[in-house]
Amino acid sequence: QKEVEQNSGPLSVPEGAIASLNCTYSDRGSQSFFWYRQYSGKSPELIMSIYSNGDKEDGRFTAQLNKASQYVSLLIRDSQPSDSATYLCAVANQGGKLIFGQGTELSVKP
Amino acid sequence: EAQVTQNPRYLITVTGKKLTVTCSQNMNHEYMSWYRQDPGLGLRQIYYSMNVEVTDKGDVPEGYKVSRKEKRNFPLILESPSPNQTSLYFCASGLNGLAGGGEQYFGPGTRLTVT
Predict the structure, then answer these.
(1) B87 touches A at CB < 8 Å
(2) Beta carbons within 8 Å of B115's beta carbon, 6+ residues apart
(3) What is the pLDDT of residues A49-70, one digit of tens each?
(4) pLDDT in tens, B10-69
């Protein structure tokens, strides 16, 4: 079992729809959870971070964390073509070790 | 401008020829880290550093060395590169590590090819 698994893509949604990206992790000691966006040929950039159970909202983005189920998700509301990218889920322990999932490619069709 | 810089951006080298990829940040960040990205394998952490003179192994440290003699620099050293180290490498830095959802800022990447 991979330490961090994301739903396999590519995921295609129409413009204006909600995109739902999911991630599960195996280490129950994990402390912090991240969603990065990576455009083709570019560096990853942080979209959201979360470390407490529940929801965290920032504009069109909502991160959800359920530590009991070892599950973290990212919802993108009102998806735009500019949201088309690969989304990386990452999980950190108490120190500085960070494990990434394999990424989910999102395509938002106009 | 606040940034993480890496040099070189592109490098083609031969097996066994020692090389160093430099990483520098101007944000006075405590935390720095190196990653490699490969198709189908995603991003994997090589080494990280929580502070000066403190380094720890990530998921794939074999074949790599790092040092953190000063806060702003975190070079990645390949003593004897092999073709399986052909990859896209990213350096990143963060203010105080990853606890509490600390943000990392990534450098532009270094594409390394070992023949």
Answers:
(1) no
(2) B12, B13, B14, B15, B83
(3) 999 999 999 999 999 999 999 9
(4) 999 999 999 999 999 999 999 999 999 999 888 999 999 999 999 999 999 999 999 999
The residue among A8, A43, A46, A88 with the most chain B CBs within 10 A of its CB, best to mutate, is A43
From the list B101, B94, B99, the residue with the least C-alpha distance to B34 is B94
Binary contact (A44, B106; C-beta < 8 A) = yes
Distance between CA A83 and CA A13 in Å, rounded? 10
Torsion of CA A50, A56, A58, A60, to 10 degrees: 120
Does the beta-carbon distance from A100 to B97 stay under 8 Å? no
HSE-up of residue A24 (Cα within 13 Å, Cβ side) = 7
